[in-house]
Design a protein that fits this description.
alpha/beta; 2,3-Dihydroxybiphenyl 1,2-Dioxygenase, domain 1; 4-stranded mixed β-sheet; about 35% strand; globular
Length: about 120
């Protein structure tokens, strides 16, 4: 019955400027407009192709050590270099057979996994 994933929502304590620098600048995503009824809540939405990430404001936010979205990429080495050039952390992990992957954290501590299947 499940046909897809519309978006992933992550939390943020409210630093939209820092989030834009990371998600737009480092990741190359595009900021998407929020409907007016939701925009009053703060936060921001980002898109890249079919991938949509929503950042919602949570004043009691604490980053999770484990929870994360897994984002498929192509050219993972170049993508990791792009993040590093923007000052983002990149931690490689070789524990998933059939994939190359690394983790990074956004400016508020959300953990993101980036992976590319081996062909």
């Amino acid at each position: 019955m499940i046909t897809g994933l519309d978006h992933v929502q992550l939390a943020s304590p409210g630093s939209e400027e820092a989030l834009c620098r990371y998600y737009e600048g480092a990741l190359g995503m595009v900021r998407a407009p929020k409907p007016a009824t939701l925009a009053v809540r703060g936060g921001c939405w980002f898109e890249a192709g079919k991938v949509r990430l929503h950042l919602g404001i949570d004043d009691a936010y604490r980053p999770s050590a484990k929870a994360h979205p897994g984002i498929l990429v192509t050219g993972i080495d170049a993508f990791a270099a792009r993040l590093t050039a923007h000052g983002a952390d990149v931690t490689w992990d070789d524990d998933l057979p059939g994939h190359r992957r690394f983790y990074s954290h956004d400016p508020v501590g959300n953990r993101l996994e980036f992976l590319e299947p081996l062909s």
